[in-house]
Structure formats: C-alpha cells, structure tokens
Amino acid sequence: MIELLIVRQYRQSDHDAVLKLHIDGLNQFNASVGNPALDQDLNNIQEHYLLNDGEFFVGTINEEIVAMGAYRKRDRDTAELKRIRVDREHQRKGFGQLILNALEASAKSKGYKILLLDTTSNQVPAQKLFIKNGYIEKSRKLFGELEVIFYEKNIAVREVSSLAQKFFLTDLDGTLLRSNAALSEYTIDVLSAALNKGHIISYATARSFLSSNKIVSAVPWKYPIILYNGAIVFDPVTNKVLDGHWLGKQITDEIVSIGRGKSLIPFLFALDEGDDERVLHEKLSRKGDISFYESRPNDPRFAEVTRLVCPESYRTLIITYIGLAEELEPLKSEVEKRYGDEVHIHFMKDQYIENHFFLEISHRKANKREGLKKWAGLMNCNPEDVTVFGDNLNDLGMFEIAGTKIAVSNANEKLLQLASTVVECNDEDGVAKYIERLLEGQVDSGVRKVKI
Fold first, then answer.
1. 45-72: per-residue pLDDT in tens?
2. CB–CB of 353/150 below 8 Å?
3. Cα(99)–Cα(361) distance, rounded to whole angstroms?
4. Domain check: are 238 and 257 in the same one?
5. Which of 150, 163, 180, 385 has the fewest Cβ atoms surrounding its Cβ within 10 A?
6. Degrees to nearest 5, angle at CA 189 with 187 and 190
7. CATH of the domain at 323
C-alpha cells in the first residue's frame, strides 16, 4: 500500500501513542537495557526536547502516529538523536529515512555541527540506516548482555568544496530503475555515499511522489525532486509542493470532453486545495486503464467518480489516456489542432503494459525541460552545471539544455544521438556506475561521445 507520511512536531496529546511506539520498538528487537530511568525523557518531552534547543517529530498516516524521532542539546555544537522508531507494520517504506532527514534539517537550522546517536547491535535495520547516511561508528559498550553502538556525524562541513560539488538529475523508469521497477543494492549504496559526501543528486520522473517514493525511498533524498514530468517541483523532506504548472478547470474539462467523444476517458491527476495529490477516474473497463490501476493497489489518491470533471478547487497536473496507438493518435491530433502550444503533449509507449501507449496532456511548461530550469534555480546553479540521465522521449527537454547528458544504452535513439556519453543499460546500473567512476576521477566530466 502506498502511504504518505506527514511529519510534524510532537503535541502533548501524542504522549500515549509515542510511549507505546517506543516500547513496541524496543520489544521488537529485544533492545531494552532494563533500566526504566533511561526512558524518563518521554514523560516530559517538552522539557527534555522542545524547551532544550531540541526537537521531537512524529510521523502520521491518517492522523495515526507510526514513526517518530527527536534530538536534544548536548552542548553548543552537539545534539543527540533519540527515539527514532517506526511501527513494525510500516517498516521498510522509507519512513525512518524521512524522520532522519527532518531531524538533520532541523538540527542544521539550529546551528548544530555534530550529531550523536546510539543503537543496539540487535537493531540491524537502524544500523544500516545510520551507516547509509554517513554516521561513523565511534565505540561499543556492553550494558549487561546488550551491546550498544555509538555513532557520530559532522553535519556542519560538506565533504566536498563548492567547486568540486556535482549536480546530478536522473530519470527513474528505464534509467535509474531496473526493468523490474526497482533499485539495485549497488545503486542505493553509490547514491547514498555520494549524497553523504555533499554531492547534489535528485530525480525527475513522470511518477507522483507516492509512487516514486515507494520504490526509491532507500536512498536518502535531500533535495527537491521533479514529479509528473515537470508539473511539480517537490521537497521530499518537508513533503511540500515548491512550484509547478497546472491546467485550469475549463481547458481540463474541454479535453476530457474531446476524449469522451472518442469513447476514451482519462485519469485526471490533480492537486486539491490542500496540495494533496488526487487521481479521478470513471468506472474502469479498458485493459490498459485496469492494468495501470492494478499496478498501484490501495493507492489512496485514486477515486472513482460517476462522471469525470475537474473540481473547482483542483489544479490539473496531467490528463492521462492509456490505449493502443491507433486509439490515441486521433485524439492527440485533435488536441494539438485545437490547443497548439497552449498545452504540452507527451505520447510514448508504456514500458510495463504490452502494446499500450500513454497520451499525457499538461500545461505547456509542465515538462522536464522547464522542470530542470526550476530545479537548477533552487539549487543555485545553471542547467549547464547539471549532469542529466535519461532513456525516453520525455527526457529530451533535459538533454537539450543540460551541460552533460548521459544516456543509458537502452535509450531511445534520439537521446543516444544527443548524449555526451552512453553508459551501461538500466539493468546493469549504468547511472550508478557512471557517478561512481566520475567521483573517483575515472571519467572526464566534459562533453564527449563515448560508449562505455
């Protein structure tokens, strides 16, 4: 199930749920040292954390607390991370990473330079999370029969200078992801290490945040991401929409009406008045629509309506039609003829539904070219400073303006012709291998046509 975690500050009314989550977490891994005095901070979170130059975050799904984490002041430069927990039914979904990201960002904003934390040798998932995020083991100590591991991380100084810092923006499906729509452990390790050294790595995808985060959350993404092929720039740490382009209600309803005249009903991807993602559709009967819907089981964004129209308070991100090429091409031609450059139209073969194509209609600036421009502005760099990776036609805009463009060997021929370098295919981790080689000084970052 795809679920969106909302991270917020602790409230007094959260106390019982926080205490239960803490105890359940210790019991799951037999991690209690048997000293109740060590848990006294949870009886007065205001005093120990919020009023002590610290922070205490909880993560909620539908207002239920399923994750938490905190830090408190050790000295002027040092804070101690505490109580990072994720409910066992919600583990392996990237929620621990989201809590850790929020804690680190908050600690930096308060001027802390060093973060300390500890965990037990029984809590292997926690150890992997901390090591992946650059925490260095400093010592171990026995408390009875339980071994406690102590970690430290310097968050004040980047591992690389601004001159050596690299900017990377990668597509997901067909590029960073393997053909099974998953990241390899090697790719996770390479990207995590590069991020922890201060390099800026993010992604630009046709997917939503919910859909993409489900499959890439093992990487500690820290920087804005581009969603819906450029319709949204989104902060994965705060879960906030930073910028975007969307269609108005009138043009949305007109395009839906044109499709209806050809017996085609789309999925309507939109933001509601609270910036939450919504996907509206009528009763599904066509093979492509059903396959797409079933590939996202229990997705809370989807809602069936009797007759599809854009609600007054919604902002349309993408109108998506799925079908055979001969079904969609007449609709594409009519929309192009009627609206010209008022809209952006993307038509491509789907990678997962056999013989089916996607026809996506959005705001004229809702594309990866414009998304890269906005992203570069947020990163205080120019598009020419960015290395982009892609495989399909929706990546062409990035390739046209980026300084360095890297195509995986399975890419569309148009991207292969524009590429500075062609690397191994997505199933051979071409993106991660290139980044690793570049950061180790094994490949030239300049523009050159090389097949590796």
1. 999 999 999 999 999 998 999 999 999 9
2. no
3. 35
4. no
5. 163
6. 65
7. 3.30.1240.10
